[in-house]
Automatic annotation (TrEMBL):
This is Probable taurine dioxygenase. Keywords: Dioxygenase, Iron, Metal-binding, Oxidoreductase. One of its GO terms (cellular component) is cytoplasm. Residues 1-12 have a biased composition (Polar residues).
Length: 356
């Protein structure tokens, strides 16, 4: 398949994206400080990625009428990649309400809402927009990560960004773990910003001219095995419907909230870099996947406690669960949808933007 064309959009040039799914903001957002008086304390977990916040309850934020706080939180999440909130008393319905306000405050397209996973059963008890993450379901052959976890015996094979097979993938995701083993079951995240910054100048230029195909056609096999039809209706965006679970996205994309570039590939769904031979695609993907999996200093590892909650930016991070436990582990996940991925050729990497 050919590379995407460059479309003029003053004052920047946008590569890729879709005219019906553009962000509603024309410039990166700036943190205003509205969260400062609400947070008891915070700590960056690693230099590259992750922040843990104390004293902030999702339920309390939902009572606020002013969306400035939500906008600032979106900026914080997008800059740090993932934010951890301890001991959250929040229901699945409140999680959905929160994610809608977060994505809207950050400037998502008016056509974007909450994602409905293609494998979500009709009439699910928690609602269409809630994905149940359950080790017990996986043991019985179900669960959203069953197929991915069965591909390889290497734990690193599980690194992914959520639902990149959709034409309009996720901007933010929220996961609350309410049932967990005594030890084990950690989740790792890595920074797509940092992976981009570790590329050489010529490699950055080369990759910025390429797209990749993200494909989840194996979900059709999963649906037949589970006896549930694929959800072919609108899955959170008018562009996300039908049975074709594949999309073409730029290999390097710009996060509209920060204005920073990041590598946008993942082992779970990215099958082919377009515009090059298959052998070249295989070599390039293997190299990029290695940058993700073999740079522990670009990663953060989070040990869950009951009712902890993580919110991350899927545009600029990848994550991977750790299956090192036998006891039950379960939680609820909500994904909001952002814009169709694009590259703003005038945007920069994180290090350049921060002057470091």
């Amino acid at each position: 398949m050919p590379s995407v064309t460059v479309q003029d959009s003053s004052p920047s040039k946008l590569v890729g994206g879709h005219p019906e799914s553009r962000p509603r903001i024309s410039a990166p957002l700036t943190y205003t400080g509205s969260l400062d008086k609400l947070i008891q304390s915070y700590a960056d977990v690693t230099p590259a990625i992750g922040r843990e916040i104390s004293g902030l309850q999702i339920r309390d934020l939902l009572k606020l009428e002013d969306d400035v706080v939500f906008r600032d939180l979106a900026v914080l999440i997008s800059q740090r990649g993932v934010v951890f909130l301890k001991s959250q008393d929040v229901t699945p319905t409140e999680m959905k309400d929160f994610m809608l306000r977060l994505t809207e405050a950050s400037g998502c397209p008016s056509s974007s809402g909450l994602h409905v996973h293609p494998l979500t059963e009709e009439g699910s008890e928690l609602g269409d927009q809630i994905s149940v993450i359950s080790s017990e379901k996986q043991k019985k052959g179900g669960g959203l990560t069953h197929q991915l976890s069965d591909v390889s015996r290497f734990a690193s094979a599980g690194w992914h960004s959520d639902i990149t097979f959709e034409k309009v993938p996720s901007d933010y995701a929220m996961l609350k773990i309410h049932t967990l083993p005594e030890t084990g079951g950690d989740t790792l995240w890595t920074s797509g910003y940092e992976i981009y910054d570790r590329l050489s100048g010529p490699m950055k230029i080369f990759l910025e001219g390429l797209t990749a195909t993200h494909d989840a056609s194996f979900f059709h096999d999963e649906a037949r095995r589970l006896g549930n039809p694929i959800r072919e209706g609108i899955r959170g965006s008018p562009l996300n419907q039908g049975g074709n679970l594949a999309a073409v996205h730029p290999v390097i994309r710009t996060n509209p909230v920060t204005g920073w570039k990041s590598v946008y590939i993942n082992k779970g769904f990215t099958k082919r870099i377009n515009g090059v031979t298959k052998d070249e695609s295989d070599v390039l993907l293997a190299y990029l996947f290695n940058l993700v999996t073999q740079n522990h200093d670009a990663q953060v590892r989070f040990r869950w406690s009951a009712n902890d909650l993580a919110i991350w930016d899927n545009r600029s991070t990848l994550h991977c669960a750790t299956y090192d436990y036998d006891a039950a582990r379960a939680g609820d996940r909500v994904c909001s949808l952002g814009e169709a991925p694009y590259l703003d050729t005038n945007s920069t990497g994180r290090r350049e933007a921060l002057g470091s």
